[in-house]
Every structure is written in C-alpha cells, then in structure tokens.
Write a structure and sequence with these properties.
Strand content of chain B: 25-35%
Distance between the termini of chain A: 25 Å
Radius of gyration of chain B: 18 Å
Largest sheet of chain B: 6 strands, mixed
CATH topology of chain B: Rossmann fold
Order of helices and strands of chain B: EEEHEHEHHHEHEHEEHH
Structural class of chain B: alpha/beta
Helix content of chain A: over 70%
Strand content of chain A: under 5%
Oligomer: heterodimer
Helix content of chain B: 25-40%
Strand order of the largest sheet of chain B: 5-6-7-3-8-9
Largest sheet of chain A: none
Number of strands of chain B: 9
Number of domains of chain B: 1
C-alpha cells in the first residue's frame, strides 16, 4: 500500500509536470461546456423537449477526459515506460510491474472524476443545469464507460510493439472518438449519415448511456450499449493481460 | 562459506547465436565476482538470465537459495540491481526516484545517507535527466543499494565516472563487502577488477574461457600485467586459429 501511495503521488506529480493531461482532460471539457452553454443557453434540446440542449450534452462533455486519459494518456505512458525499460527495472524489485499500471489507471481515473466535477460545477453555476436522473445511476454508468475506454488504452499500450505504433494507434482512436462520438461536437447536430458512422464508435454508445442516465430516461433500450461496453472491456482487458509485454 | 549465488550449466541463445553457453558460477557471501569479456561476449545476457529478466534455455540459477523467476518478490527484497542503461521517468527528480524506490521494499537504507556517500547530496531536487553521465551512474548504484541488499548486481558500474568518483565508489563497495555484501559486477576497467574482485570469469562468445582469481589469470599466462593476461585470454583462440 505504501508503494502504491508513494508511486501514485510521484506519478501524479510527473503527469501534472507534463501538462498535456491537464490541458486535454481538465481544461478542454470545461471550455467545451462553456461554449455549448453560450451557444445554446437554455434552448430546449428539440421543439417540445422537456430538457435543454445543455442538459442533453452534459453526459457527452463529461466523457472528454475519459477519452483523453483512456485512449491517449494510458497507451502512451505504458508504451513509454516499456520503451524506457522502466517496467524492466520494476521487475527486479519486490513489486509487481502490474502495480505501476494500477497507479496509472488510478491517475487517469482521478483526472476523469476531477473533470466530471468541474464540468458539473461549470454547468450548474453558470448555466443553471440540474441533473434530472439519479446520481448513483449516472456514476455507475460513468464508471462503466471509464472502464471500457481505459481497457482500450491498456490493450493498445500493452500490445503495441513500440512507442511509434502506440502513438499512431492512440491518435487514430482518440481524434475520431473525440470529434465524431459526440463528446465535443454534439451528436444531435450531426447529419444522419454521420450519426450512423458515429454509432460504430464505442464511446458513442457510452455517451448515449450517460445521456439517458443524466436525463433520467434509462429504459430497456440501454441494454444493448451496456452489453457492448461490458463485452468490450472484458475482451480488451483479457487480450491485454494475455499478450502483455514487459520488454 | 555460504554460497549466495549459484549458477549451473546456464545456456541461452537468440535465434542462431549462442549468447551464453554452459556457465557455472558460484559466489560466496562477501565475495566480489567480476564477469569480464569484450562487448557482446554475453555478460549482460548472463546477468539477465541470472536475475530472471530473461529466461534461460537450460541450466539452473539460485540466489540466496531462491529461484529468481518463481520467488521473485521475496528474493528482490534482498537483491539490488544496477542495469547498464539508466531507466527513469521523464521529469522525475533524484529525491522522487529514491523515494519511490525505497517505498517498494519492506526494509531499506536511508537514501539521503547513500546519496551523501556517493557525492549526490546536493542533487536531491535536480531532475535525473539533468545529471551528468557520471552522476547518473552513481545515482543508479545508490538505487541498487537502497534495499540494503545481501547481493548486488552492477553492470558496468563505473563507466563514465571520473578518477575521483571511481575511487569513491570502490571505497564504498569495499566497505559494504566487508559487512558481508556479495557483489557480481561487470567492468571494462582492469584496474578496477584488480582492485575489487576476489574471483573473475572471462567470457568469450558466451563461453567461460577462464574462471579463478586475478592472481591465477596472471600466473596461468605468459604476461605479468593483469590487463595483458586478460587480453591474452580473450584473443587466444583467434590467434590459434590464425596459426592454423
């Protein structure tokens, strides 16, 4: 436990020194929330809707940090530590190299939760947002989305042969998901054709779930996305453990 | 004397190259064992197989009576390792790296004292990447000593150090040896080997061509200086082949 807490503290400091996660996971979601708030103010989501466009977008904006940490931060840090043989050095100490991965997952989890709180604070304080769904339901869904996105990151970081491949894969996953899954550009304003493409992205399914949870509209229709995300997480985690390379 | 490191018939090959062949090593407590040989002779592969970071093709390894692959967690509480290349996180400071390393062990020495002994006390807040080559080298020896180990592996321990720093490292290792620390080291500096090592093994193309004391190397060959005798051993076969 002492090893975990010391390493967590140090790795968090190193991550903050790096600044990129601070920008992509902490600042960017708040900026997107502010922009959406200014553009749509209190407009309803659609004619006759009982909730505002902003309320509909809350769940989506809250995933920006998950996306940044899971498919950009995690894979890069894992392949970087393998490349620099830091994992190898951990192999000749009493700790398991798995500890350093657990620490990284905890750090990106912390970024995501910090971002969720900041986005929520921004929405409530400046744009009068209220979460109409149940908090436990929303938080549970949030954790499921986080788990499935992080599992993609662990898979990419775990099996990419080198840091070049990892960073290409991370970019290929990150940017389309960030833009086309509805996290930044609202899904509802996309043309229908683009929506169809967007539906393939796992994050789109996660965002749909979060939207229903935040609006209190959870129905049986959520079973499919829940199943998709769960299967995704199980498959990715199993493969990344099975084919993990320490060197 | 208690044997702390025991290697029997260790072999390892990569694709078609035999990196290490049939090594037998036995080191007693408080002994300094030098693994010598030209670049690519198989020293690092041998060390990695002994540590268990590489899997040997055949042979057995026992450190402090434990198998490094199956008893890894228990064994490495008491074994310190300095690899040839320094591995550390971007932007990490000396103090942070020492703190994290210390936190991994149940019992450990005070890293501040070790840094002082190795002349790095004023570098606590510096980033590791900003240290000079010699300072980094000393820092990684400190990291290997943090667990207060019974056995320590040092791969090219003084490469990049200036004359003063080399003497300081020797002094420190001799003190620890006197307290019962077993040391396995590799080195390209014959003065260092002569100064520190009780026993040496000379590797050539993965095979042991000599194993014994420094004195024995000299008496067994035609030369009086250790370095000449060492070179005679590493060149011997080639010369004989040329003769044919």
């Amino acid at each position: 436990m002492r090893a975990f807490s010391t390493m967590f503290k140090t790795e968090l400091k190193l991550s903050l020194r790096g600044m990129d996660m601070f920008i992509f996971a902490i600042c960017m979601p708040v900026v997107v929330m502010v922009i959406l708030g200014i553009i749509y103010a209190n407009k309803p989501a659609f004619d006759g809707a009982e909730y505002t466009f902003l309320a509909q977008s809350f769940g989506a904006v809250a995933t920006i940090a998950i996306c940044a940490g899971g498919v950009m931060g995690l894979p890069l840090v894992i392949s970087d530590y393998r490349n620099k043989k830091i994992l190898k050095r951990f192999m000749v100490t009493p700790t398991s190299p798995a500890l350093i991965l657990a620490v990284q997952v905890a750090i990106y989890g912390l970024y995501s939760i910090a971002s969720l709180i900041l986005v929520y604070a921004t929405a409530t304080l400046f744009f009068g947002y209220q979460l109409s769904g149940s908090w436990p339901c929303f938080c549970g869904t949030y954790l499921l989305v986080m788990l499935s996105m992080f599992s993609i990151g662990l898979l990419v970081g775990g099996v990419a042969p080198n840091i070049k491949t990892a960073s290409v894969l991370a970019s290929v996953l990150y940017f389309p998901m960030l833009i086309f899954s509805g996290a930044t550009l609202p899904y509802e304003v996309m043309p229908a054709a683009l929506q169809k493409v967007s539906d393939i992205l796992p994050l789109t399914q996660g965002i749909k779930l979060l939207k229903s949870a935040s609006l209190g509209l959870l129905t049986d229709s959520v079973l499919v996305p829940v199943a998709v995300l769960t299967v995704l997480a199980v498959v990715c985690i199993s493969i990344s453990i099975r084919f993990f390379k320490w060197e | 004397m208690e044997i702390t490191v025991k290697v029997e018939k260790l072999s390892k090959s990569y694709a078609h190259i035999q990196a290490v062949e049939n090594l037998d090593i036995s080191i007693c407590r408080g002994e300094v064992f030098g693994l010598l040989g030209a670049n690519g002779a198989g020293k690092s592969t041998a060390i990695e197989c002994i540590l268990g970071t590489k899997k040997q093709d055949s042979g057995t390894v026992s450190i402090l009576g434990m198998n490094p692959r199956t008893d890894r967690k228990k064994l490495f509480e008491k074994v310190g390792v300095q690899f040839q290349e320094a591995n550390y996180q971007d932007k990490i400071t000396v103090a942070e790296l020492c703190e994290v390393t210390q936190a991994l062990y149940k019992t450990s020495s005070c890293y501040a004292d070790l840094l002082k002994r190795f002349g790095l006390a004023d570098k606590l807040k510096s980033q590791v990447s900003e240290l000079s080559g010699g300072q980094k080298q000393r820092l990684f020896i400190v990291l290997a000593l943090i667990p207060d180990p019974e056995v320590v592996f040092l791969d090219e321990l003084t490469t990049g150090l200036d004359a003063r720093a080399r003497r300081d490292v020797w002094k420190c290792l001799s003190d620890l040896k006197a307290k019962g620390l077993t040391i396995l080291l590799t080195s390209h500096f014959m003065d260092e080997v002569e100064e520190l090592c009780d026993k040496i093994m000379i590797l050539k193309n993965g095979k042991s061509v000599f194993c014994g004391t420094v004195q024995e190397v000299i008496t067994s060959g035609p030369y009086e200086k250790f370095e000449d005798a060492y070179l005679w051993y590493t060149d011997k076969e080639d010369k004989e082949n040329e003769g044919i």
